[in-house]
Amino acid sequence: MKIIVPIKQVPETGNVKMDTETGTIIRDGSESIINPLDLYAIETAIELKEKHGGSVTAISMGPPAAEKALREAVAMGCDEAVLITDRKFAGSDTWATSYTLSAAIKKIGPFDFIVAGERATDGDTGQVGPNLAAALNLPMATFIRTIDVVKEASAIQVERLVEEGYEQLELPLPALVTVVKEIAYPRLPTLRGKQRAKKMELLRWGADDLDLDVTKIGLKGSPTRVVKIVSPRVTREGSRVEVKNEETLEKAVEELLTFLNERGFLAEHKRLTEGEKGA
Amino acid sequence: MHKQALWTVAELEGAHLRDTSFEIIARGRRLADKLGVPLISIAIGSGIEEVELQRLIHHGADSVAAVDTGALQGYQTETYSNVLTSLIERYEPQIVLAAATVNGRSLLPHVAMRLRAGLTADCTELDIEEETGNLLQTRPAIGGNILATIKTPEARPQMATVRPRSTLPLPEDPKRRGEIERIPFEAQWHDRRVKKLGMKENTVEQLNIQAAEIIVAGGRGMKKKENFSLLEKLAAELGGVIGASREAVDRAWISYPHQVGLSGKTVVPALYIAVGISGAIQHLAGMKTAGEIVAINRDPQAPILEIADFAVVGDLFQVLPRLIARLREERQL
Ligand SMILES: Cc1cc2nc3c(=O)[nH]c(=O)nc-3n(C[C@H](O)[C@H](O)[C@H](O)COP(=O)(O)OP(=O)(O)OC[C@H]3O[C@@H](n4cnc5c(N)ncnc54)[C@H](O)[C@@H]3O)c2cc1C
Ligand SMILES: Nc1ncnc2c1ncn2[C@@H]1O[C@H](COP(=O)(O)O)[C@@H](O)[C@H]1O
Asked: What rounded mean pLDDT belongs to chain B?
C-alpha cells in the first residue's frame, strides 16, 4: 500500500507577520511548524502502513525551509519525503498550489491513497484536498474520522463528519481523503526516527523537474489575488462584575440574567416554561 | 438561462432546504442588484417539491434552476461536481456562491479546480468593486489575526463560500414570483465510484454547533469531564448547545465536533457563553464574531474578559449552579 501525505509548513499562529504590500506571509523570523491538522494525516498514513504494509511519502510545496517539516514527518515514521520548491512557485494560491502538487504526485508514480489534512491553520481554506482529488480525478471523502481498508485492499470504508452526524461511505482505491482530528493521536518522533530523518536524502523538485504548464504556476498562474489586508481589533466595551462573596455573587447573577433577558435570550427559556405549564 | 448571472448554490438535507441556502441569497441579492444581473438559485437533489423551490424565490432569488433525479439523492461530491461544472460551462455565470458548510467546502473547490476558477473560502464579507465590477471577497485568515480581501481579476466564474450565519436571510415574501426551470440530468454526470453506506445521526448530542443560536462552551477551568453536566444544564435552560476549547477536547471531556477555534469550528451564534476558557488567540479565532459574548472566569486578566459583552470575574463553580437555579426559579414563576 503506497500512501502519499501532502503536508504544509505553517507559521506558529500568534506571531505572524504580514507583508501588507503583497499580501503574503513573511515567513522568516517566525517559528514554523507542521500544520497541526496535518499531524493527523501523517499518523493515519503511518497506522495504515503498519497494518497493511507499504510505504508513506510525505510531500510539501514551499520554501526551502519546508525541509524541516518534511524531516519531522520522516522522524514520525514516513519513509520518503519530497520537497517541491522553486522561486517560480512563489505566490501560488490554492489553485496553483494544487496544480503543482498534482504534477508532483503524478511524477511520484502509482499510489493507493492520498491522505490530506482538513485544512491549514494559516490560509485556513481546506481547498487543497478537494482540489487535488479533482485534478487527479480521484474519488474523495472529506472530513473523515475513521478509515477501514476492505475488499482485499481494493477499497476503503470511511465515516465522514457532517453537520447532522456521520456519513458512511465506501470508496474504491486509489482515493483521496481529508481527515479530522478525531481520527488518530499523532505520535511523537522517536530517537531512531530523528536520526534517520537527519541523514535522509530528500527528493527536491523544481518547476523544470515537473511536467507543468508554466502559465499555471506561481502568482501568475493563480486565479485569485490578495488586494488588501487589515488587522481588525476587537475589544467590546462590555460590562464586568466581580464575585467576591455571597452578596456580589447574587448581584452578578441577577445582572447577568437581566443582560440575557434584555437581549431576548430568555425567550426560548420562557417558551420551555409555557410548554411545561401547558403539559 | 441568462448568462453572466449571479448564482447561489442551494443546499438540501433530504428534500428540504437548509437555512444557509437563504443566507447566501441574501448575500447575493445585494451584489446582483449592484451589478444589475439576475440572481439564480441552483438546487441539486432528489424529490425537491415545487413549494420548496418557490421558497428560494420568496427569499430573494429571481429564478431557480433545479436538477432533480434519483441519482442525486444525498450529497455526493463527484456527481454533484459533474452537474455544477457542466451547468457553469453551459450558462457562464459570473459569480457562484455557496455556503461554507461541510458539503459546500467540499464541492466548490472540486468544481473550481476543474474550471480553473478562483475560489475564496469562508468569506464574511462580499462586495462589488465599483470600477471593475469584480467581486471583492473578504475573509479572516491566520487565526483571525487578519482580514484579507481577495479578488479574481480575470478567471471566471468568481467563486466563494460564505460563512454560515454571517448574514441573515431576507424576510420571506410570498408574493415574489420567478421562474423555476428544471434541467434534465445527463447520464454521463452520474459517477458511481463513491457509495453511500449509511448515516449515523447525532441528534442526541446536537452536534451542529455551527447552526446553533446559543452556545455554552467550557474550557480547562471545568476541571473534569463530569462537570460538563453543569454546562449541559445551563444549555438546556437556554436552549443552547455545548462548545469547548481545545484543552477540554484534548482531555476527552467532550468530543471533537464540539471544539471551537482555529483547529475546530468557527461559530457565529447570537450568544456565546465561555466558561473557564482563557481566550487564547486560537480559541478567539473561532468565536469572536459571535453576537453577544458572556465570559465567566476567575482570572481578572483572562483575555476572554476583554472581548466579552458581559464578563463575570468569579468562580464558575459558584456562578453556574446559582445561575442555573435562578433560571429554574424563573421558570416556575
Ligand atoms: C495551532 C494551534 C491551534 C489551536 N486550535 C485551538 C482551537 O481550535 N480551539 C481552542 O480552544 N484552542 C486551540 N488551541 C489552543 C489554545 O492555544 C489554548 O491552549 C486553549 O484555547 C486553551 O484552552 P482553555 O482556555 O480551556 O484553557 P486555559 O488556557 O488553561 O484556560 C482555563 C481558564 O479557566 C479559568 N478557570 C480555572 N478554574 C476556574 C474556575 N473555578 N472558575 C472560573 N474560571 C476558572 C482560568 O482562569 C483560565 O483562564 C490551538 C493552539 C495551537 C498552537
Ligand atoms: N503547500 C502545500 N504542500 C503540501 N500540502 C499542502 C500544501 N498546502 C496545503 N496542503 C495540504 O492540503 C490541506 C489543506 O490545506 P489548505 O487548503 O491550505 O487549507 C493541508 O492540510 C495539507 O494536507
From this structure: 94
The Å distance, Cα A13 to ligand 1 centre, comes to 15
SS3 call for B79: helix
Q: Topology of B209-332 in CATH?
A: Rossmann fold (3.40.50)
Supply the pLDDT for residue B298. 96
Q: Which three cell numbers stand for residue B281?
A: 488567540
Exposed/middle/buried for B180, CB within 10 Å: 0-12, 13-18, 19+? middle
CB contact under 8 A, A269 and B331: yes
As to burial, measured by CB atoms within 10 angstroms (0-12 exposed, 13-18 middle, 19+ buried), residue A75 is buried
For ligand 1, atom 36, the nearest C-alpha belongs to B221
| CATH code reported for the domain at A2-216 | 3.40.50.620
Domain with CATH 3.40.50.1220 in chain B: 209-332
**pTM for the structure as a whole:** 0.84
According to DSSP, the β-strands at A165-172 and A155-162 are: antiparallel
Kindly determine whether residue A95 and residue B113, on different chains, have CB atoms separated by under 8 Å.
Answer: yes
Contact A223 B102 (CB under 8 A): no
Helices (H), A137-266: 191-199, 218-221, 246-262
Chain B partners within 8 Å of A105 (Cβ): none
pLDDT tens track for A69-82: 999 999 999 999 99
Pairing of strands A203-205, A80-84: parallel
pLDDT digits (tens, 9 = 90+) for A114-166: 999 999 988 889 999 999 999 999 999 999 999 999 999 999 999 999 988 89
CB contact under 8 A, B106 and A130: yes
Per-residue confidence band for A278, with pLDDT thresholds at 50, 70 and 90: very low
Let me know: does A222 contact A96? Beta carbons within 8 Å: yes
Residue with cell 446553533: B212
Instruction: Choose among A275, A73, A277: nearest CA to A194.
Output: A73
Written as nine digits, the cell of A79 is 519513509
* Residues 6+ positions from B132 with CB-CB distance below 8 Å: B153
Q: For residue A271, give the C-alpha cell.
A: 417558551
In this structure, what C-alpha cell is assigned to residue B304? 476572554
pLDDT tens per residue, range B256-265: 889 999 888 8
The string of pLDDT tens digits covering residues B159-217 is 999 999 888 899 999 999 999 999 999 999 999 999 999 998 765 555 678 889 999 99
Which residue from A minimizes the CA distance to B210? A163
User: Tell me, what's the pLDDT at A11?
Assistant: 83
CB nearest to A227's CB, from B142, B151, B330:
B151
The ipTM of this complex is 0.84
Helix ranges (DSSP H) in chain A: 38-52, 67-76, 94-108, 128-136, 191-199, 218-221, 246-262, 267-278
DSSP classification of residue B170: P
Fold of B6-189: Rossmann fold (3.40.50)
The dihedrals phi and psi of B237, each to the nearest 5 degrees, come to -65, -40
- B-chain CB neighbours of A229 within 8 Å are 146-149
CATH 3.40.50.620 residue ranges of chain B are 6-189
